[in-house]
Amino acid sequence: MTMNNQTSTRPLKTVILAAGQQSITENGAPGSGVPIVLQTLGDRKIADYVIHNALRLVAPEDLYIVVSQLQDEAQRCLWGVDAACPYHYVVQDEQRGTGHAVLQLAPLLKDFNGDLLILYADTPLFRLNSIRGLLNRHRLKQAHLTLLSAVVDRPLPYGRIIRDAAGRIMDIIEETDASPEVREIRELNVGAYVAQARALFPALEKLPPSPVDGEYRLTDCAHRLIHAGMRVESYQIYDQDEVQGINNRGDLDAATFILQKRLYRPRRTEEQNLIAFGTGGWRAVIGEGFTLHNVRRLSQALANEITRQGKEKAGAAQRPGGVLIGYDRRFLSDRAAEAAAEVFAGNNITVTLLNEAAPTPLITYATAAVNAAYGLAFTASHNPPEWNGLKVFRGDGSLPLDDETRQIETEANALWFEDVVKIDLDLALEAGIVKRRDFTNAYVDAVEALIDLDAIREAGLKVIVDPMYGVGQLTMGIILTEARCRVTFINERHDPLFGGRSPAPNLDALRMLVTHVRNEGYDLGLATDGDADRIAIVDEQGEYVTVNDILLLLYWYLRAVRGERGGVVRNLATTYLLGRLAAHFGEPCYETPVGFKHITASMVEHNALLGGESSGGLTIRGHILGKDGIFAAALVVEMLARTRKKISELLQQVYAITGRLYAEEDGIQATPEMRIVIPRRIKALAQEHAVTPVHLGPYPVVSISELDGTKFLLENDNWALLRFSGTEPLLRLFAEADSAEKAKELIESLKVLVSL
């Protein structure tokens, strides 16, 4: 059968029923006086969830919200009503039922020949795809009324759907009117409708009041349409969590729990298409979340923001403008960069596109060098080869903070294919709105300007480098060669599979590097991760040097040998020895949440000398506002050259100042249940700590920090940390203690805690 095109494109308006005045009470106590739909669920009002979904389907001027009153200034304030408000607020003076509420729109829509989507403000958990499914079913079936239904396995106070032997809807019976037999029916009318306006309003006008409570009900309207021979259809949803309404405190708690599950559940099925930023940008599995379609949606959202800011042209009026786009060696990184360039060009935004794969720190540097509005680096850093992603930089090279990325991802996820504007790359290059450039020499010059090349040349160091099949070889090779190091590379070829493992520079991945150093007499082994923003080193004895120790060495070197002043910034998973070393020099140490954006923000705020994290990222004042494994490697080489000492000797010198602490780290695959249960368990433990001393194993907990995850602070700078990764589905466990055995014991105590 051929679908009527006119029917399929019938215009749509939405009404949200929000006139209820009931306030949530608890234990029989009076409510707050604030209607249920205006109370808080998660991080926003209950009604806002429904409004948000509605605005992804209709324009603001096509949204109507039925309320009980707006004369009161407090009510207007709660609803956010002002002169600029784009929605229509319709007052239902008397609360005479849901049918009566919808009928208040009849004078406003008397000439409207389209569909009316009806939603309830106190049922906020419907997924957008469920509403789209409802609309699609309504139009494909050319129905007069289509309702949302669900088959549930628990009793709920919703109307029961009565069907005949052929499956056609014959009636809807409210719970208050239902017999015991009808109440056994598990298919429910869950509170969302779409109806042809020209069928709905006449039926509402003829609707008699219910003999039970005198109200005019939408369900009775459905009954009348059925018996008038009109077509009433349904669309079934399968996630029972969606039907959770909110009428009391227990309902609100249940809805909060559902939101938590959604927040921490791995993004599968339709949610794979959602773009979500973590601590290291947006990352997803190739072919699932990371697709060229999502790349284009995200680029369009960024293009929209650039346009709003008036920053379309590079360098216009000495202000940031345009975008700079780079990419690494991962599968699809180059294609993704070109796809993004096409979108920005289609939006009349100038693009500087790097002409070959490049390290992330080079892209960060280039973003600031061209004074771009944003920089984009297509990479998944150290993640496994099946992942890819995107790091977004501000014009100064810093990473945007959470509120900025949240705005970008929200806008991107609301976009459809037809919302993306693009032109072919060939045309964009010919027109000059996209220009390819090479920043290798400029970046190398910037690094070398901060390094004592003459001292390195005199030392004649023998260095071996493992770029882990990533993008660190070219720039690292130029710098070390110009510094007259005798340099050897391993694992330098282009391999999108990274040798079959994650390009993360940890000890297990660097066994080959360790072997070469031990057997061939190198002064130093260096490694960078896949996009070269992290560093690892192996000392002259072939011993792996932890990143915590690298940070100690470099801060000591900058302060004691170079004579530079300033404090240090570390994240909460990084060694406390940095604080001890800073105190030795009379300098402060600042702690931040995980995420290098927090480190650089703190560095700028406090004019700190060095910032770093135990995962391998660091930078210094005067360099880029992002982590740089290549610069860090060059600085380590300079340290060896100027001190004329080995890494092992320098470490002992630093330990003589700071003493020793030993770090351990582990990870557990994070299941959806863990992401819900563990925070609740930790919260209960923190509450218990307020009245009863808490122990990790045999060790008393002095205090508990919830700056990022949960950190247990013990005596003598010992600590243990639990936090869910922002880049991978992992629960990360960290510990630092005054013996290696104690650190391992603390890790095991954390595992026991999360397994209870």
Care to describe what's here?
This protein is an alpha/beta fold. It folds into 4 domains: about 10-265, Spore Coat Polysaccharide Biosynthesis Protein SpsA, Chain A (Alpha-Beta Complex), CATH 3.90.550.10; about 270-440, Alpha-D-Glucose-1,6-Bisphosphate, subunit A, domain 3 (Alpha-D-Glucose-1,6-Bisphosphate, Chain A, domain 3, 3-Layer(aba) Sandwich); about 460-660, Alpha-D-Glucose-1,6-Bisphosphate, Chain A, domain 3, CATH 3.40.120; about 660-755, Alpha-D-phosphohexomutase, C-terminal domain (TATA-Binding Protein, 2-Layer Sandwich), CATH 3.30.310. It has 25 helices and 34 strands. The strands form 7 sheets. Strands 1, 4, 5, 6, 7, 8, 9, 10 and 11 form a 9-stranded mixed sheet that branches. Strands 12-13-17-16-14-15-18 form a 7-stranded mixed sheet, sandwiched between helices. It has a 5-stranded mixed sheet with strand order 20-19-21-22-23, with helices on both faces. A hairpin with a 2-residue loop joins strand 2 and strand 3 (about 45). Helix 7 crosses helix 8, helix 10 runs parallel beside helix 11 and helix 19 runs parallel beside helix 20 (about 575-585). The radius of gyration is 31 Å and the shape is elongated. The chain starts with a helix and ends with a helix. The relative contact order is 0.07. Residues about 1-10, about 25-30 and about 265-270 have low confidence and may be disordered.
Features:
4 domains; Alpha-D-Glucose-1,6-Bisphosphate, Chain A, domain 3; 9-stranded mixed beta sheet; 36% helix; elongated; 756 residues; 7-stranded mixed beta sheet; disordered N terminus; alpha/beta; Spore Coat Polysaccharide Biosynthesis Protein SpsA, Chain A
